[in-house]
TrEMBL record:
InterPro entries: HAD-like_sf, HAD_sf
Protein's UniProt name: HAD family phosphatase
PANTHER family: HAD SUPERFAMILY HYDROLASE-LIKE, TYPE 3 (PTHR10000:SF8), PHOSPHOSERINE PHOSPHATASE (PTHR10000)
A Gene Ontology cellular-component term: cytosol
GO molecular function terms listed in the Swiss-Prot or TrEMBL record: magnesium ion binding; phosphatase activity
Length: 273
């Protein structure tokens, strides 16, 4: 008999919130409140940085803990930072020089938003894809005010970033061995989350769950992206949304409906929550 679920980890984009939209549906908010009231720890595990947490993106949804920037940030419900992993100044310079040379869009997530170090004009032009609506290089959605041009490339001098996003990468592009200290995880065609090789949602979740006294075997996770694969494999039960990437669908224990149809409600039912 499987152990009872004592912690639930949920991705944001494509899981809690449909791509290009904001706000978690009222039905999911109500159900999550019931799950929390029953004593299950609810943890958001997202590639987004912590500055997006709050009503602008999540509406009235609230969790107990937030794993952000693919594990580089962990904060509690009050926003207190429990752990962090930041790039060094040398790593910022290395990625900036590479993306400038390759003519790629490069954005770094800081506490207050994303700073674009290279390719800002391409970002304004629609991320290099003529005819398409301009999109935030760090993902879909109305994030005006969160994305800033940094022509001086010095924003990191007042606080180092938690990772990076590279956008506009050609099909078949190979990142060089000089960048082996990073991992590059694609989230849509030509776009990659960049974070340290030793960082991911699964490692951050393991540390957090140990802190709150919950074994990984008693945790369930739901996601849709490539950056969710390690987490889905690590927990007791891993669930893929119906809109999930092929690698995530293959890693999951079962698949539910897509985010547009509130597939999370099906996941909660099947998990007995």
């Amino acid at each position: 008999m499987a152990p009872p679920i004592r912690a639930l980890l949920l991705d944001i984009d494509g899981t809690l919130v449909p791509l290009g939209r904001t706000g978690v549906s009222p039905a999911i908010v109500r159900r999550v409140e019931q799950i929390r009231a029953a004593g299950v720890a609810v943890i958001v595990a997202t590639g987004r940085s912590s500055f997006v947490l709050g009503p602008r993106l999540l509406g009235t949804f609230a969790a107990d803990y937030y794993i952000c920037a693919n594990g580089a940030e962990v904060v509690d419900a009050e926003g207190r930072r429990l752990s962090e992993d930041r790039f060094t100044e040398e790593e910022v310079r290395l990625l900036t020089a590479y993306c400038e040379r390759e003519k790629l869009i490069l954005a770094f997530p800081f506490e207050d938003g994303y700073g674009i170090y290279t390719g800002y004009e391409d970002y304004l032009a629609g991320a290099g894809r003529p005819g398409e609506t301009r999109r935030d290089p760090v993902g879909e959605g109305p994030y005006d005010g969160w994305v800033k041009n940094c022509p001086g490339r010095d924003r990191h001098l007042t606080g180092l970033p938690f990772g990076a996003v590279i956008h506009g990468v050609p099909e078949g592009h190979r990142f060089p061995a000089a960048l082996a200290g990073f991992q590059f995880v694609g989230f849509r065609r030509g776009s990659f989350d960049v974070y340290h090789a030793q960082v991911d949602k699964a490692r951050a979740a393991a540390r957090l769950l140990e802190k709150i006294g919950v074994p990984l075997s008693c945790a369930a996770a739901v996601g849709d992206g490539n950056n969710d694969v390690p987490l889905i494999r690590a927990v007791g039960v891993g669930v893929a949304m119906g809109n999930a990437r092929p690698a995530l669908r293959q890693a999951a224990d079962f698949i539910v409906g897509p985010v547009e149809e509130d597939g999370l409600l099906e996941a909660f039912d099947r998990l007995g929550l």
